[in-house]
Amino acid sequence: MEQQLEECVRLRNEYNHMLAYYNETNEPLPHEVHHVYDNFAPLDPVMEVNDSIICDNLLAKETILVQKVIECANLLQQSEEDVRNRLKIWKEKQMRAQIGYPCSDKDTELAKTEKDTELANTEQDTELATIDSEFGTLFDCISKLLELANGLVIMLTQSMGMPENAQNCSITQLNEVNSQLNLLYRALLHQVLVVNEQPEPVLKTQRKLSKMEIRFLGAKKLGMERESNMPSVHFKITTEELVKQHTDGNMIEEVGIIENAEGKFAVNAKQQITVEFSKSKLISVKPRTNCSSKESQKTKKEQKYVLFFYSDPLNLKSFGQVNLWALSLPIMVGVNVSQDCELYATVFWQRAFGCVDCHGHIEDEPQSVTWPKLAEAIKYQFQSFTGATHLLTRSDTDFIVQKMFGPALINDPIKQGTLIEREKFLKEHMEDVQFSCWDWFYSITQLIKHKEVLDFWNKGWLIGFISYDDATQRTMKARSPTFLLRFSEGTRGALSIAGVVDTVTPDRQRVVRQPFHLSPMGISDLKKMSLVERLQVNQDLHNMYLEVSEVREVREVTKASILAPFGVPAPVIAPPSRRPYLLTKPALSISWPTPNRLFHMDPVDSDCSKMEVEAH
Description:
By secondary structure, the chain is of the alpha+beta class. Strands 20-19-18-21-22 form a five-stranded mixed sheet. A four-stranded antiparallel sheet has the order 1-4-9-8, with no helix packed on it. It has a four-stranded antiparallel sheet with strand order 7-5-11-14. Strand 19 and strand 20 form a beta hairpin. It is elongated and about 130 Å long.
């Protein structure tokens, strides 16, 4: 772009010299007529020919120059569209990153370590720095081309002796260029504020907000190099609907109260013009709907808000006062953690499948997506919620879709092409339970964040996504009595231990293998007695059943080797032949052993309602 501008300057200088020469050769005497093309003035034929040649050359140079200016303006228009698209893509990456998507296109795998995450963030910052530089270049080039076009208009207006029709045509074209460049400049100005660090997607009233940062793109080219010239920035909580009604921050209605919502731009260590908000606190938000009905309650829970950032009016040469503003991504507001599941459901779908324009407005979200897209989003959200290094596998996501639609054939069109409705995943209750697939999935991620459970998951000791029947079949077929850890299907956010025990028949003639499923354990249960302690005291758990999904290899690991990393010795276990016979029932579960008895048999919960035991 700078080369094209230099070419325009060169043509302008050549045209200026030619015009000066033309005006000198045609400078009239006091008694002469000023207009060369006055048909009533007698002229020397030789002079008339020379003037005609010079005039034609000058008009040709003028035409080339004006066309070059128009070409430069069109190139700037295209460059502005390109950088705006890159900014839009950057904002969408930033939005996806809030549920775990990688920030860089180079990342084909999920970030598996903190170092990978920091590298992705660095790449994202580098990408924004490039956009920042492009904004500055565009501001600089637009200003130079505006100055050149305005100078040409003045030059053509004041020139003498040229055909008026040709002059008027050139002036009209240059004025159109000026209007185009002014609109382009203002369009860029409306995009210079970027929320570099977004607020948390779910905010709580009476809580401090996480650190947020606003960045001023191309600030130095707008004269924002000195601290004294930098404006203050304010923000308020509102809605997108209210923002679309006004662009002046002082006119937009505030729907909540925020403390410490003002800051001032400054130059940071990276020489970037930014403002940070690290001490802000959300006090309250106004009720949005009449919550007397069930439908309005649902609407309120899904109500999205935005943070509207706006600067004091900025005075720019030739443009006067301009108002700069930016929007955060949509946020949800709650009072306590019991609301998080529903609030994050709305956030998940919007972050995964919504689109954002260059101004930060969120376009309409799709109400349905294909399963491969949803499965990908679930994988990223799982890692973002849990911080796990062991990622969800294809079999894990296949199990999740089976929870919604039941067992399916290989390459079932439901999983490959059929659209899955938003309500089906987020809201509708699954079969035989009173919660949705999202509720079940979210509760599992909160369970895995429990330290011991996360350790088991990362080490591959928690199979997790396996059905009641499948767990029974696999452990029954194992070479020795084994057990495995799985997520309860009938209880949200709970672990269950499935396994088999070998017992001696009453006549002591043979050993019978019988399956069991222990009662589900939630986070509150694990706080009372840890998973490691439960494994240690239960003498019927010998070998853990593990499956290496990549190679379909089945392994059995002793309980002692599982407990060793936690510094817990495994108890001495009596051989199966010395065990008392375990009485059977049509449906049973074995709860945790107490000091007084080894086994305790109760009717199972809804997760174990299909359990059957062979009776002898």
